[in-house]
Amino acid sequence: MDDAPRASDFQADADGKSLLRFLTCGSVDDGKSTLIGRLLYESKQIFDDHLAALERDSKKHGTTGEDIDLALLVDGLEAERQQGITIDVAYRFFATARRSFIVADTPGHEQYTRNMATGASNADLAIILIDARKGVLTQTKRHSYICSLLGVRHVVVAVNKIDLLDYDQAAFARIVAEYQAFADKLGFASITPIPLSARFGDNVTVRSPQTGWYQGPTLVEHLETIDVESDAAAKPFRFPVQWVNRPNLDFRGFAGTIASGAIKAGDPIVVAASGKQTRVERIVTADGDLAEARAGDAVTLTLADEVDVARGDVLVPPTERPEVADQFAAHVLWMAEEALLPGRPYLMRIGTSYTPVKITALKHKVDVDTLEHLAGKTLALNEIGFCNLSTATPVAFDAYADNRETGAFILIDRYTNATVGAGMISFGLRRAANIHRQDLMVSRPEREALNGHKPAVLWFTGLSGSGKSTIANLVERELHDRGVRTFLLDGDNVRHGLNRDLGFTDEDRVENIRRVGEVAKLFVEAGLVVLCSFISPFRAERRMVRELFGQDEFIEVFVDTPLETCMARDPKGLYAKAKAGQIAHFTGVNSPYEAPDAAELTLSTAEATPAEAAAAVIEDLTARGVL
Length: 627
Known about the structure:
- The chain is an alpha/beta fold.
- The chain folds into four domains: 7-225, 3-Layer(aba) Sandwich (Rossmann fold); 232-316, Elongation Factor Tu (Ef-tu), domain 3 (Beta Barrel), CATH 2.40.30.10; 323-428, Translation factors (Elongation Factor Tu (Ef-tu), domain 3); 447-624, 3-Layer(aba) Sandwich (Rossmann fold).
- Helix content is 25%, strand content 27%.
- A seven-stranded antiparallel β-sheet has the order 7-15-11-12-14-9-8, with no helix packed on it.
- Helix 6 links the parallel strand 5 (154-160) and strand 6.
- Helix 12 (506-525) runs parallel beside helix 13.
């Protein structure tokens, strides 16, 4: 799910120490960075020159008076030091006499929840810090729930700043009881509460004389002894292909990192998506061939047979295959300012594969305070929902609970390339076994020959009052008079029947256009020229419809009319009502319109009459060879 350090990034030392990956999380200003700074300081991981620099920085940026501010060891970004908060995920490596550690310091602010999820995705244990003065907060619960979703099974409840409450045992017990009541629903394998003061080191590496009532381990003792050994090697073999290595005609290998399991030269192997079977011929590395490779090893596999394998394919054992499907259910953590809209196309990265995907249904949202399931049509920033998803092509996956490497995915905005969501697959959704495509006796070329013209979609988009319906009507009249078989789908008309159940929220607009696109596709299959007149305010949905059709079949016609002109026309009085607050989600007033970036045809109705605009469309169709 992220590019966090892996265990293989650090070589085991001469004593063969095990390595524990953990993260610190919790609400803002609970002391996460200070705790990590204390761990680094106590484990002698700070060089003298770094310590001197830390003393200087503490005087400039510190928040601990005359004392050294250990948080500055981790808060390396200048923006973080000035604001006194953690923004990015900071990874640190340190070791004690018994174990080595990779720790991720994650931000506490709600707006940086995505960074926290990044840190949790590869952690074996989470330290949930709670300010003893504030107790369990919503962000505490949110981070705990995300840790649970992301497969973290061991939690330390670090009740920090206990010194500010005079090491009060009753306050500690009250916080632990409240947290335990919430976390019991999350299925953690272990929950270990520890009272501590990161600033002064109480119960961090040495037992504090101030908490004689506490009989448990110090934090470091617990981290050194807890058994969280990864069982990735014991899971079924999974090898996502990252790169097809073909330096010459005599060598064809498949490079990647083994996600789980182990493989030996000579083992049988299957391409998960196609089911093609072969066997491993060689396991190639820069240091020579291996007889066996295990989870975390970066290798190149050569195969005995010339089977079709590409980047994104997953190689698996024939007897332990993952599920391969184009529909599945998953928890989704939404990470973008712009809301998730069911039906809108996104790009999904799962393993090394990228494929278009849609959220077909939001089954429920999760209240992170109570863990209750809430109804909802969309997800806002930092909300978590349980969704059904549909991909353009089948993908290979395991349930996230079974394999974190092959059950996780991210969602990417197709225009900005920004990561907008992270998902954890629960199970595949199988279609009914008796649903198949029916072969038709009349082919599309035969329909086109009968009609005497090519099919096409004319997609008229523009603001309300731009004149698109008027122009579309004139174009259809002219095409009909020329003997062209047509049908006009108008935004108002379809809402009387096909889409009468939809409103005008953003999510309903997405579904409105999705349905119209599917209907238009059927008309094109019938060989018609279909004219669609819809505001269709979002580029993503217009692109979604475009991708339903072949090359040169979709012609976007942007009826470019200034908002002021549309408001002056206001043929239905809608702009006046919207400005008066009587209509919500009205495009151009209280809902945005995203103009096309590169429409096939742009018509300016402020300068041309409807008849002139319609003539321009006919001329364009002729030039394209549709007529």
